[in-house]
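Table S2 (continued). Query chain:
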Amino acid sequence: MTNVPRDEFGPEHVIEVSDPGIGMRGFLVIDNTVLGPGKGGIRMTPSVTVEEVFRLARTMTWKNAIAGIPFGGAKAGLVWDAKEALRQAQGKFSEENLKKQHVQAFAIALKKYIPDKYIAGPDVNSGEREMRWFAEAIGDKRAATGKPAEMGGLPHELGSTGFGVAHSARVAAEVFGRSRTSPGSPTSKTLQSVTVAIEGFGNVGTFAFKHLAEMGAKIVAVSDSKGNIYSKNGLDYASALEIKQKEKSVIHYKGAQKLSYKDFWSLPVDIFITAALTDAINEKNKDLIRAKIIVEGSNIPMSEKIEDELWRRGVKIVPDFVANAGGVISSYAEYAGLSPAEMFKMVEEKVVNATRRVLEESRKKNRNPREVALEIAQGIVRQKMKRH
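Corresponding output:
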């Protein structure tokens, strides 16, 4: 049925479900649950495949292990094309109603796995609203994290992933000598004058921008699906957010220069943050990269082959499952009943510790950070598997 590979770690379950009546089709991959129930968000795109979902589920296995939280790895994908759904509905339902139907049909189809084997969460095109729908369809609040606050949730909209990415970037700048002040300086001063470009201005990108700017970093470039903007003097967070909300794209930011695809990816910044979709760095743009450090705020922003090529060229890279673990750490904080303040404290501590451990060993042994991080995560999972 699929090209999903199997090895000593998993996957335990590869599930494809559908509801022909409404055109729902989706996938769930439960990779490894030795550390706890599989945890991973629901990706809703027109092109999502079971192979992509598997890659993301395996990333979650390592992410949860290295973050030190009692979750296994899993991921879900729901094929969602709003325009096509509306066309087929022929005006009978609104887009919101159609999306709710798909999410809830998906939840019901997966009910026997929830919450013992799988707990849902937000991802691309799914947020607190969709998590509410999912949990309501199952009839169990434990079915999903990232729910609205009134359901006892710590919604994705709090920005835990972007917050963690910013702190991971801070540590990377310190370890690799890009910060303009000493590592012992206050957080707010650590990244003073460090230049940053951010690919993607959704939940992860916006909050990474916000927190990095608060640390003193100069965000010189941002992109979204409509284009790329640049200002050598730095972009203002509040202005960028306002323009995005009003005009639906950052390209309308006044005073910023619009950049071509080539010029955006070739910016010679200190830190480049990926915060959009899978495989954003690929054969077309890998040779354009001039950033000193790449922090992978998005999941699987490039293949391991390309990542290794960049590392050999001298680009320092913080792997996705280290840098962007803030979201799943927040999920665990919600699962454990913690407050937002307690959650943010946990995210900072765990992301900073994991990033520093991986990068310092990478620098010490001159090894690709992903190899180091995988070795640590696999060791944690293997040890637990031996005890079972």
